[in-house]
UniProtKB/TrEMBL annotation:
Matches recorded under SMART domains: HATPase_c (SM00387)
Stretches assigned to the Histidine kinase/HSP90-like ATPase domain: 22-183
Intracellular or extracellular location(s): Cytoplasm
Positions of region (A): 1-354
HAMAP family per UniProt: HSP90 (MF_00505)
Source organism per UniProt: Thermophilibacter gallinarum
Name of this chain's protein: Chaperone protein HtpG
Protein role: Molecular chaperone. Has ATPase activity.
NCBIfam families: PRK05218.1
Entries under InterPro entries matching the protein: HATPase_C_sf, HATPase_dom, Heat_shock_protein_90_CS, HSP90_C, Hsp90_fam, Hsp90_N, Ribosomal_Su5_D2-typ_SF
């Protein structure tokens, strides 16, 4: 027996016992290796005309034997020579590097990252197996060899003779795992079932590009005898059939025109465990220095735990068709945490556990691009299918507003255009762009009122007063609204018809348009104002003066009212903000905190 090098041994022990948090991924690793081996053979055939492969026969086979407690993974890929067996499977880390030594000394957490540099997926088999045997025959070699190991001390390599039942007459590799004995805390028998293996193949290797096959047992009705009468009882028999378990062609690699909406919806539902069809499906194909395909979905309904602490955002990350991470959080900004989908990039290299990725820079670049794509898709949805968009906004709008607030307004450009608010004048949801576009020329701000009840807000005297001036008021009823508005401070409406300083300028422009010029447009930045905050500045100078004089003239009365109300109010004065035929009095606040914000803050965290 050849011994594992000491550092390999320690590494193996560390890995089996602590690095992989998830035993079931052993199958993914073995299937990936098999797929790689077939790739290598196929590639060879492309570059070397003496190498003949029958493409139709390239496959991976998974089998199990309940009595012997074994799982077998068979491929007809390139195989390994005895030397390659020694080199690839005998030493875990090809070189005992410096980092590796550090890894041994340090705590687990650090070790994970360092080990991440070595490709050691094969050894994950020892998480479930007490013995692993690898029988392999390299392409073009007439030798067949067996590598065996218990994953503890070392391994043996020996030739396999032609009369051995395990002998391979064709190239490729057969890996047999003898499962560990069941222990109180670990049931390895669970892997000895067609159902379980099928589940694992579907889950982790569904898009491996070669067929992953299993001999499955099915049941069918026996052929009816020719003379079967009305009282004939059908008889059933079992039979076996080689079934391809994985779907092979990744749906995200297909052109959108080749895939039906139903297929996308099915993929979405089965992959992301949702019952409702997605509200929108879109894909992204990035080329250049970093190549990847992404298939993304806006869910049709909010997951029940979206706003809970347990909710995990993230996209599935594949590298060359193999799932390496189920929820890669780095690919999505928080405010798009509801988006689901798949990203596949052969440029993201894998590491040992595939659970920790080190390509942060690449991920950041992908995240930015994905974020832009999501924004533009939402904008398209807003402009093309308003009804669907309003439904979307009902589900996920709160997160967008929160994104503006929590970024202190930095994400305003990205997100503000996506917001919808209830317009008191239009009696429907409007965007801020629509609000500004509909503003009369003399209106200086976007007015909103915040509170928890739309009806009640609409009846507020100040709201009535602002509406009476001919200005619309947005009625904001979510707790985050006002924080969002305050973080934004203003909104820039894009491409509005240009306003002109004087009639002459306007007439000149009109004439130019009549002569065939494009109408001029301009952006307009408008402040957001709570109708309840001190100075609304709606009144003319004259009205203001009148109010001041009236306050002075009634000093005695207001002083008495202030005394009676005590600490409850700061001051009592005549207001210019009430409509002539509206309410006689109004309570309002001054300073950055409005009444509504005080209420939310006083309520404390949810
Ligand atoms: P990685 O796949 O990241 O290189 P693994 O530990 O999974 O690391 O595999 C180690 C090496 O063993 C592979 O690089 C490959 O050379 C060899 N190998 C593993 N499985 C097979 C197989 N089924 N056929 C041929 N070679 C294999
Ligand atoms: Mg591997």
């Amino acid at each position: 027996m050849r011994k594992f090098k000491t550092e390999s041994k320690k590494l193996l022990d560390l890995m089996i016992n602590s690095i992989y948090t998830n035993r079931e991924i052993f199958l993914r690793e073995l299937v990936s290796n098999a797929s790689d081996a077939i790739d290598k053979l196929y590639l060879k055939s492309l570059t070397d005309s003496s190498v003949q492969v029958d493409q139709a026969n390239l496959a991976i086979n998974v089998a199990f034997d309940r009595d012997a407690r074994t799982i077998t993974v068979f491929d007809n890929g390139i195989g390994m020579t005895a030397d390659e067996l020694e080199k690839n499977l005998g030493t875990i880390a090809h070189s005992g590097s410096e980092e590796f030594k550090a890894a041994n000394a340090e705590a687990q957490g650090d070790a994970v990252d360092i080990i991440g540099r070595f490709g050691v997926g094969f050894y994950s088999a020892f998480m479930v197996a007490k013995e692993v045997s690898v029988v392999t025959r390299a392409y073009g070699s007439d030798e067949c060899n067996r590598w065996t190991s218990d994953g503890v001390e070392g391994y043996t390599i020996e030739p396999v003779s032609a009369d051995d039942p395990a002998y391979r007459s064709t190239c490729g590799t057969t890996i047999v795992l003898t499962l560990k004995d069941n222990a109180e805390d670990a049931d390895y028998d669970e892997f000895l079932s067609e159902w379980k293996l099928r589940e694992l193949i579907k889950k982790y290797s569904n898009y491996v590009r070669y067929p992953v096959q299993m001999l499955v047992t099915k049941s069918r009705e026996k052929e009816r005898p020719a003379d079967a009468g009305d009282d004939y009882q059908p008889e059933w028999e079992d039979y076996t059939e080689l079934e391809t378990i994985n779907s092979m062609t990744p749906i995200w690699k297909k052109r959108a025109s080749e895939v039906t909406d139903e297929e996308y919806a099915e993929f979405y539902k089965s992959t992301f465990h949702d019952w409702t069809d997605p509200a929108r499906t879109f894909s992204l194909h990035a080329e250049g220095t970093l190549e990847y395909d992404a298939l993304l979905f806006i869910p049709g309904q909010a997951p029940f735990d979206l706003y809970s602490r347990d909710y995990e955002k993230g996209l599935e990350l594949y590298s060359s068709n193999v799932l390496i991470m189920e929820k890669c959080a780095d690919l999505l900004p928080d405010y798009y945490n509801f988006v689901r989908g798949v990203v596949d990039s052969s440029d993201v290299s894998l590491n040992i556990s595939r659970e920790t990725l080190q390509q942060t820079r690449q991920l950041q670049a992908m995240e930015r691009r994905i974020e832009k794509k999501i924004t533009s898709e939402l904008e398209a949805m807003r402009d093309q299918s308003r009804e669907a968009y309003e439904k979307f906004f009902e589900n996920f709008g709160r997160g967008l507003k929160y994104g503006i607030y929590s970024s202190y307004g930095m994400k305003k450009d990205e997100l503000a255009g996506l917001l919808l608010f209830w317009s008191a004048r239009e009696q429907k949801m409007v965007t801020l762009q629509e609000y500004v576009a509909a503003m009369p020329a003399d209106q200086k701000a976007i007015y909103y009122a915040a509170g928890d009840d739309r009806e009640r807000l609409a009846k507020m005297p100040v709201v009535e007063a602002v509406l009476a001036k001919g200005y619309d008021v947005l009625l904001a009823t979510q707790d985050v609204d006002e924080f969002c508005f305050q973080a934004m401070r203003d909104f820039t409406a894009k491409g509005l018809p240009k306003t002109y300083a004087d009639d002459a300028a306007r007439e000149a422009a009109e004439k130019a348009v009549a002569d065939g010029a494009e109408p001029e447009v301009e952006d307009r930045t408008v402040e957001l104002k709570n109708v309840n905050s001190g100075d609304l500045d709606l009144a003319s100078d004259e009205e203001k003066k009148e109010a001041e004089e009236a306050t002075k003239a009634n000093e005695g009365l207001f002083g008495a009212m202030k005394d009676a109300l005590g600490d409850k109010v700061e001051k009592v004065a005549v207001s210019t903000r009430l409509a002539a035929d509206g309410a006689p009095a109004v309570i309002t606040s001054e300073g950055p905190l409005t009444l509504e914000m005080e209420k939310v803050l006083a309520a404390g965290p949810e």
